[in-house]
Design goal:
The protein has 282 residues and is mainly α. It has one domain. It contains eleven helices and two strands; from the N terminus they run ααααββααααααα. A two-stranded antiparallel sheet has the order 1-2. Strand 1 (126-129) and strand 2 form a beta hairpin. Helix 1 (2-32) packs antiparallel against helix 8 and helix 3 runs antiparallel to helix 8. The protein is globular. The chain starts with a helix and ends in an 8-residue tail after the last helix. The chain crosses the membrane at residues 12-35, 60-83, 95-115, 135-156, 194-216, 222-247, 254-274. Keywords: Amino-acid transport, Cell membrane, Membrane, Transmembrane, Transmembrane helix, Transport.
């Protein structure tokens, strides 16, 4: 029983991490069709925002507020200066966002160096959960991730911005004909996706080594989360995260982590091949 509880909580932790990272990607890819290869770098920016705030004497909670603002502003600038000009050129978008990822990585290295940077979690205690001792911060991360997901569902279903986003996803041309400013929706959606990635970076940072390349580790898996779950579908992000995170955690108990990750990605390719619309289509 303790082993099952521990495995389940570890799976929920990984699922929550992937869900947070993939949520912003689902908005960008599902709405705009943009394959944003620089998405992982916004996770890195969030983690380095935490380091910067704590190095300046601030708290984890302050960084949790500042990082999404930084991600949103940087995402807005990139959408206006680069992405907006490439909507009808998908190959150019891939090359441009890949180039942006390299630029951001090197900029972070120039600013902070290549060595890992120390950050601290808001609390280090452990709690008893069904007979096992588990880090309280991981439990907080799980609860917070689902709270963010619930908040995004409310925004997409109950606000004018959410209505505009869903309209543009369904039929951008018709949405424009009805008076929706699709370009503004694109800009806000891209910036919101960047903000969510930066938020994820703050939450992930206390669990991993904070380096300029840390975001790369989550890029491929977050793409598979979106594709398996269903592009443009927030419930699909939950389903895709459960599939990738749960299966990876289960397999990693019996095989090396690299083999587990490769096996999960192979199974994800098979699912996408036979169900290209995803588990929960938009």
């Amino acid at each position: 029983m303790p082993d099952i509880v521990s495995l389940s909580l570890n799976a929920l932790t990984l699922m929550s991490i992937l869900m947070l990272v993939a949520l912003g990607l689902a908005i960008i890819y599902g709405l705009m069709g943009i394959i944003n290869l620089s998405h992982g770098e916004f996770v890195t920016i969030g983690a380095y925002t935490l380091f910067t705030v704590q190095a300046a004497g601030g708290s984890f909670w302050l960084a949790l507020v500042v990082a999404p603002v930084v991600g949103y502003l940087l995402g807005t600038v990139l959408e206006i200066t680069v992405i907006r000009r490439l909507y009808d050129r998908p190959i150019s978008t891939i090359l441009a966002t890949w180039g942006l990822s390299l630029i951001l990585q090197q900029a972070i290295i120039l600013a902070y160096g290549a060595a890992p940077r120390p950050v601290t979690a808001p609390f280090e205690a452990s709690v008893q959960v069904l007979g096992i001792t588990y880090p309280a911060y991981r439990l907080f991360l799980i609860v917070f991730a689902f709270a963010v997901m619930a908040g995004c569902v409310l925004v997409f279903r109950k606000t004018p911005f959410g209505l505009d986003v869903r309209a543009v996803i369904q039929n951008a041309g018709m949405a424009r004909a009805l008076g929706v400013n699709a370009e503004r929706v694109y800009r806000r959606a891209f910036a919101s996706g960047a903000a969510l990635a930066a938020l994820a970076g703050v939450l992930i940072a206390p669990l991993v080594a904070v380096t300029a390349l840390m975001g790369v580790n989550y890029l491929a898996r977050s793409f598979f989360v979106v594709l398996v779950g269903g592009a443009g579908s927030i419930p699909g992000v939950v389903a895709g995260s459960a599939f990738v995170g749960g299966l990876e955690s289960l397999l990693s108990t019996t095989v090396p982590i690299t083999v587990a990750q490769a096996s999960v990605l192979i199974l994800a390719v098979v699912i996408v091949r036979f169900r290209p619309q995803g588990l929960v289509p938009a």
